[in-house]
Amino acid sequence: METKHTHGPWKAHLNVPSAAIEGHIIKADYSAFRPIASLFKGGGSKGVPEQIANAFLIAAAPEMLDALQGIKSYVTRLLTLQKVPQMDIDYILRKVDTAIEKATKQKV
Fold first, then answer.
1. Burial class (CB in 10 A: 0-12, 13-18, 19+), 94
2. Three-class SS string for the chain?
3. CA 15, CA 11: separation in Å to the nearest integer?
4. The model's pTM
5. Diameter over CA atoms, the chain
6. What does pLDDT average to in each consecutive run of 10 residues of the chain (108 residues)?
7. Quick one: which of 15, 23, 19, 12 has its CA closest to 55?
8. Per-residue burial over 35-67, b = 16 or more CB atoms within 10 Å of its CB, e = otherwise
9. What is the pLDDT of residue 2?
10. Domain coordinates of the chain in residue numbers?
C-alpha cells in the first residue's frame, strides 16, 4: 500500500518554547521545519503528563502502522499454510484491519 502520510520515523520534541503555542511538537526526523503535530503543553484532561504521553504515541504512529501491516501479512501467510486455527486469528485480523483503516482512512 502506498504511504500517503509523512514518512517516519517521527520524533516528539517536548517543551518547545519557540512553537506557535508553547508545547510539544512531533516532526519527521528529516524535516527540521514542518511539524506534523503540535500539542499544547498544559492541555488534556490530565495536563502535562497526558500531553507528553500523547506526543510519544503520535510520534510512534508510522512504526505502529508498519508493524500492524507486517503482522497482517505474516498471519495471512500462516493461515494459508493452515498453521493456526482460523477462529483464533479472525478476531486479531479484524482488530489489525480496523487499526490500519483508521491510520490510513482507507478500506483494507
1. exposed
2. CCCCCCCCCEEEEEEECCCCCCEEEEEECCCCCCEEEEEECCCCCCCHHHHHHHHHHHHCHHHHHHHHHHHHHHHHHHHHCCCCCHHHHHHHHHHHHHHHHHHHCCCC
3. 13
4. 0.68
5. 55
6. 77 77 80 76 62 86 89 83 72 82 66
7. 12
8. bbebbebeeeeeebeebbebbeebbbbbeebee
9. 67
10. 10-59, 63-104
Encoded amino acid at 19, one letter: A
Partners of 26 in the beta sheet? 12, 37
Q: In this structure, what C-alpha cell is assigned to residue 84?
A: 493456526
The pLDDT value recorded for residue 1 is 56
Closest CA to 53 of 19, 6, 100, 12: 12
Give backbone dihedrals phi and psi of 103, rounded to 5 degrees, phi first: -70, -35
